[in-house]
Structure formats: C-alpha cells, structure tokens
Amino acid sequence: MPFGENEEELWEAMKPRFRPRLVSDPNARYARTLVRGTGVAAIPAALRAIDRSARATLARVVRRTPEVLVKVTGRKKGAEHLAAHLDYIGRKGEIPLETRDGELISSKAEARQIAEEWSEALAWRRGATVSAVSMVFSMPAGTDPETVKQAVRETAERLIGDNHDYLMALHTDTPRPHVHLTVQAEGLNRKRFDPRREDLFRFREGFAEALRSRGVEAEATPRYTRGQGRAGTSMALTQLRERIRKGASRQPTDADMRQAREAMLIAFGKAAQPSFVGKSHARWESIKSRYGAAADQLDQTGKDEDRKLASEVRQFLRDRAIIETVPDKVLRDAERRIRAEQERGNGKAGPDPGVPRGTVPPSSRTR
C-alpha cells in the first residue's frame, strides 16, 4: 500500500485535540471541526502542501527538530498596567519597540501614549478591562535572533493582520532568543483579540513555517505526539522550583508538597494515579502503533530515503517506549525516597536525599 494512503490516518495521530467550550465561545465551531475532523480540518493544512505533508512532519518529529514555543504571558488591564509592561519589554528604553508598520519606539513617553490610546478604546465597552494581550515567541539557544524576529513579524502579519495594532521587542538576554509580541485587544472591527488553545496552535504552526522558510529547522507538534507528558506548570512555579534546585531556597512550593504527599500515598498503595495518566499512556500506545504502521509502509515504497526514515521512526519508538507525565515523575521520586529510607533503616548509606521533600526532580528527558 502506498504511503500516501496512510497520510490522513498518520496526521490524525499527530494533530492536536481541542475540547470546545459549550457556552458563548466564538471559537467553539472551529474547535468542533478539529475534534471531529470535519470541515476544514478534514484536510489539514499539513496535507495541502508538499513541505507540510504527513511524511515531512513525521520526519521532523522523529529527528527531534526543535519545537517552537508560543504562549500567552498575560492580559494587560488599563493604561497603567500596559505602560508598565511596555516599559519592561523595552528594558526601560534600552530595547526599541517595533510597531506593526516597522516604526521604532524607544522613548517611555511614546510607549505611554500608545498604552493610553489602546486603553481609550475600551471606554465605550461595559465591563471590558483588557487593553492588550502579551505573547512570547521563542526558539532554542543557537537560533539566529534576527531570523526569529522576522518569523514572528511574518506570523503576526498573517494571523493578526491590520485589524489589531501590535508591538514587538526582541530579547537576547537569555540563551533562548525570544520576541515579546503585545497585541491591542480591541480590533478595528470591534472584535476582541483573545487567543485560545486552538488559536495558539495556529500561531505555533505559522511561526514554525515562517522559520522553515528562512532555513531554520522548526516544528509545532503537540507534546504527546513526541512521547512527552504535559508541561503543566506556570512560569512562576517553574522559577520557584529552579530557585530550590540552585539552593537559593530550601522551602518547597505548596504545589510540590501536595504532589509529593499524593505520590507517597500512591507509592504505599493507598491511592491511585489520576485518570489522565492512564489516558496519556493509552493515547501514546495508539500513536506508537500508527507510527509503526507508517514505518512499515515506508519500507514498502522501495525508496532509500523512505527506508532510512522508517529506521529512524523505529529508533524513535524504542527511545520513547513509554510516556512519562508529571505524576509519573513525582511517583518515581517518591519511590526513590522510600527505598532510601528503607536502606538507611537497614544500616545502608542509601542515596543522599539532597533536594527538600516535596520537590519535583529535574527532568531527565533527552532530545
């Protein structure tokens, strides 16, 4: 059977799943088409062009192509809040802000004026408080920062267009080059910019495609299609955990303490893992079977490049034999602590507990 006949089934395994909101959600209709695979989702964009084919996507997944990061970092309420945010992303005038038209803004007064203009549009609305939505677009260390900025601009032009004003700021003060994109919430047609999960996925796809068109390898697949559990933590919680691991703090977070207590109960057989853990494992097994079927069909095409990809797919599956969620990692750490206590009770040295109780161990994931 030609590999092309299996592309739609393979994409079904790699595309995201969205749960539509049931009340007053303008994105619900689009979300339902994604969930059911109907309408425009019946022929995903990834299958409408050669460079977005299921084969190409599968190759990028198994070759661990760097994944783009796009996330909403906050919603700015009112001129004061927005002006403070613009001052932050502009590093108090050290980094110029770029407008939708490419104009550079470096003075605090100009940024303040924009914050007031964006907020004045809310005066006619009853109950509306969000003046702007802040987003971050990021790539791994080593990616050319200017290319990242150009890709973000192209993505914004395509997916936001002229209906909403926006500002951009490129930051290179961390290993990962990233762009802060701040979008005016009120559009010219009075529609609000309020990105949801499905919208963020479109931004990720657009960002990755813009990077690839500039010669940068990038992909935008859901974590579970790569055999990875949910990230499931906020930036604030991640920073708190990082402080603990670096020794700046010895007080574990409330979230980590709660997870640790639940994991201990599970380790002692007094509780069960959350239901989503089992569902995540089952979904990964289903995806693995589809990847395996794709590898078999690639072998049958007779092409050397397809046989090479088939071998890479099987190696990827061996490396990703199981998917490990956050509860899995916490449980593994709890079991380690129990064994250490038992060994100390038997007069053995046991591993050094080191990290305070309740903290989650550093990720052992490899790329």
Explain this structure.
- This protein is 46% helix and 10% strand.
- The chain has 367 residues and is α+β, with helices and mostly antiparallel strands.
- It has a 6-stranded antiparallel β-sheet, sandwiched between helices.
- A hairpin with a 4-residue loop joins strand 2 (97-99) and strand 3 (104-105).
- The protein starts with 6 loop residues before the first helix and ends in a 22-residue tail after the last helix.
The dominant shape is globular
Please give the order of strands in the largest beta sheet.
1-4-6-5-2-3
How many angstroms does the end-to-end distance come to? Answer: 32 Å
The portion of residues forming beta strands comes to 5-15%
Order of helices and strands: HHHEHEEHEHEEHHHHHH
Uncertain runs: 20-26, 40-52, 350-367
Average per-residue pLDDT, rounded, comes to 76
Helical amount among residues, as a percent range? Answer: 40-55%
Helix/strand structural class: alpha+beta
Number of strands: 6
Cα-based radius of gyration, to the nearest Å: 23 Å
> What kind of sheet is the major sheet?
6 strands, antiparallel
Enumerate how many helices there are, as a single number: 12
Quick synopsis:
With 367 residues, the chain is α+β, with helices and mostly antiparallel strands. The chain has 12 helices and 6 strands.
Helix-strand layout with pairing:
Layout: H1 7-14, H2 28-36, H3 54-62, E1 69-77, H4 78-89, E2 97-99, E3 104-105, H5 108-120, E4 130-138, H6 145-159, E5 166-171, E6 178-184, H7 197-212, H8 235-245, H9 254-267, H10 275-299, H11 304-319, H12 326-345
Antiparallel strand pairs: 1-4, 2-3, 2-5, 4-6, 5-6
Helix pairs in contact: 1-10, 4-5, 6-7, 9-12, 10-11
